[in-house]
UniProtKB/TrEMBL annotation:
<keyword id="KW-0808">Transferase</keyword>
<feature type="domain" description="PTS EIIC type-1">
    <location>
        <begin position="127"/>
        <end position="479"/>
    </location>
</feature>
<dbReference type="InterPro" id="IPR003352">
    <property type="entry name" value="PTS_EIIC"/>
</dbReference>
<dbReference type="InterPro" id="IPR036878">
    <property type="entry name" value="Glu_permease_IIB"/>
</dbReference>
<dbReference type="InterPro" id="IPR013013">
    <property type="entry name" value="PTS_EIIC_1"/>
</dbReference>
<keyword id="KW-0813">Transport</keyword>
<feature type="transmembrane region" description="Helical">
    <location>
        <begin position="132"/>
        <end position="153"/>
    </location>
</feature>
<feature type="transmembrane region" description="Helical">
    <location>
        <begin position="190"/>
        <end position="209"/>
    </location>
</feature>
<dbReference type="InterPro" id="IPR050558">
    <property type="entry name" value="PTS_Sugar-Specific_Components"/>
</dbReference>
<keyword id="KW-0418">Kinase</keyword>
<dbReference type="Pfam" id="PF02378">
    <property type="entry name" value="PTS_EIIC"/>
</dbReference>
<feature type="active site" description="Phosphocysteine intermediate; for EIIB activity">
    <location>
        <position position="30"/>
    </location>
</feature>
<dbReference type="Pfam" id="PF00367">
    <property type="entry name" value="PTS_EIIB"/>
</dbReference>
<keyword id="KW-0472">Membrane</keyword>
<feature type="transmembrane region" description="Helical">
    <location>
        <begin position="165"/>
        <end position="183"/>
    </location>
</feature>
<dbReference type="InterPro" id="IPR001996">
    <property type="entry name" value="PTS_IIB_1"/>
</dbReference>
<protein>
    <submittedName>
        <fullName>PTS transporter subunit EIIC</fullName>
    </submittedName>
</protein>
Length: 506
């Protein structure tokens, strides 16, 4: 009960700081962030939000995102939804209507201005792809950990009567993941979700083994998540076409029938083969890349992942990760990309030592480091390295060295992979898998983290500050809105915020 009270208290602290229930148009959450659609962005009190103890930081994107961390966000969101519903129900009817119209008008103008400046068709498409796959991450994590536990028990020869049940739990979701992808795809693209799932289900149906296409027998699961995504998108367009041309009296019978029939035939006699070839090519290329240029590939992937995240382009990797997990049981890319977080942690520790008199920044680092070690990088990125400038670049250097380390062992034939996507840092240990035993896999990944920490620290300590920047920031200050608030630690109001200035050493 105490935990529920704590989560409700967090939700209650957040709600008035985002403009109250009347200002909230939509509520969702991902692995670490509470994502809110807001009518009027100007009503949000950013600094006060960052000072809420459970809040690690905020990100103003297509939605307003409040970083709460894994586990916490899944518990706070339902409480927040209840409070919003209660607030709307208790608000006076006339005032609610008028206020909502005014806020919607102002919010629409601000949102349109931001979208015109920042949004591109490609990034919007990638967000849609992320919206399809992100809801699947909790199941991937749960099933991945069960798969790891089952593998450990099998290797040790323990609980042999239980391991078949664990194998079924771990494999059941992956066997039907195409159905969930189809369902989410249709929902995201404006179709009927269950029709998207129905068409995608064809891909995993055992009976397709009796069908021949392009001169060869199909196999259940051929095309995987990519085929399911394509099939569901096609189903959405067929359904929308039917809605325009089929008479309303016949719509309930004709539209779903034609949607499944047309999309299903195209899937069976086209998409499954094409998507299967693409999926195979992705797996082959990933194996080739790390087998032949593992250290170099790891250097590039680990070094550029943080900028990809900042630009939102990392979302393009989600279907690739899922395809590799579906094909090989794990993705060899994620442990390398996770090294970017290690570089970030090492850089933050170096900043801590380089700025011994700036208590506000040091307090931010101390409060954000535990989350950073567990793979939650937003507090360190937005509260420390990015505002300072150079430390963000040196953090990327640390990620590059850590990625090169893991990639080098992949090049030697020791594949290091993750059975799920989402976690990184220390939180990835329970999800690790490879081709040379769990002990070797864990040792290589841990070694990569250590290399990333050390490289990020050394690069930042010696090259992360110019003389002017070091002089400017290495002062004893207690700012009113220091980056400490980005990690959820309020700072006393005694002076200006040094991070509001443009770093001179970038």
């Amino acid at each position: 009960m105490a935990t529920e009270d704590k989560n409700r208290a967090t939700a209650a602290a957040i709600l008035p700081l985002v403009g109250g229930a009347a200002n909230v148009s939509s509520i969702a959450h991902c692995m670490t962030r509470l994502r809110l659609g807001l009518h009027d962005r100007s009503l949000v009190q950013d600094d006060a939000l960052k000072a809420v103890p459970a809040v690690m930081g905020v990100v103003d994107d297509d939605t307003y995102q409040i970083v709460l961390g894994p586990g916490t966000v899944a518990r706070v969101t339902p409480e927040f939804e209840k409070l919003v519903e209660e607030g709307r129900a208790s608000a006076p009817e006339p005032a609610t209507t008028v206020t909502a119209e005014e806020l919607a008008s102002q919010g629409a103008e601000m949102k349109a201005a931001r979208k015109a400046k920042n949004a591109t068709p490609f990034k919007l498409f990638l967000r849609r792809i992320a919206n399809i796959f992100v809801p699947l991450i909790p199941a991937l994590i749960g099933c991945g950990i069960i798969a790891g536990l089952n593998g450990l028990l099998v290797n040790l020869g323990w609980l042999t009567s239980v391991t078949p049940a664990l194998a079924a739990m771990a494999s059941g979701f992956m066997a039907l993941i195409a159905v969930f992808v189809g369902y989410n795809t249709a929902k995201e693209f404006g179709g009927t979700p269950i029709l998207g799932g129905a068409v995608a289900a064809i891909i995993v149906f055992p009976g397709v083994a009796n069908i021949e296409a392009f001169g060869q027998k199909l196999s259940p699961g051929q095309g995987g998540v990519l085929g399911a995504l394509g099939a569901a998108v096609l189903a959405v367009y067929v359904e929308k076409w039917c809605r325009r041309w089929v008479p309303e009296a016949l719509d309930v019978l004709v539209t779903p029938t034609l949607t499944v029939l047309i999309s299903g035939l195209v899937t069976i006699f086209g998409l499954m083969y094409v998507a299967g070839e693409v999926s195979t090519a992705i797996g082959t290329f990933a194996d080739w890349l790390l087998s032949n240029g593992g250290a170099g590939a790891g250097l590039v992937l680990g070094g550029f992942f943080l900028p990809l995240v900042m630009l939102g382009l990392h979302q393009a990797l989600i279907p690739i990760h899922t395809t590799l997990i579906e094909q090989q049981g794990y993705t060899v890319l994620l442990p390398i990309l996770a090294m970017a977080g290690a570089g970030q942690v090492g850089a933050a520790i170096a900043v801590f030592f380089r700025l011994p008199r700036n208590e506000s920044i040091r307090r931010t680092i101390k409060s954000a480091l535990p989350a950073g070690f567990l793979g939650v990088g937003e507090p360190l990125i937005y509260g420390v390295s990015l505002p300072l400038g150079r430390p963000f670049i040196t953090a990327c250097v640390g990620g590059a060295f850590g990625g090169a380390f893991v990639g080098f062992f992949n090049q030697l034939g020791d594949a290091v992979g993750s059975t799920a996507i989402g976690p990184s840092g220390w939180a990835l240990f329970p999800l690790l898998d490879g081709n040379h035993g769990l002990g070797a896999t864990i040792a290589i990944y841990a070694g990569g983290l250590v290399v990333g920490y050390l490289a990020g620290f050394v690069a930042t300590y010696f090259f992360g500050f110019s003389k002017d920047l070091l002089t400017e920031f290495n002062v004893s200050q207690e700012p009113a809105a220091s980056p400490a608030t980005a990690a959820g630690t309020p700072a006393p109001v005694t002076g200006p915020d040094p991070l509001e200035k443009t770093p001179a050493g970038v």
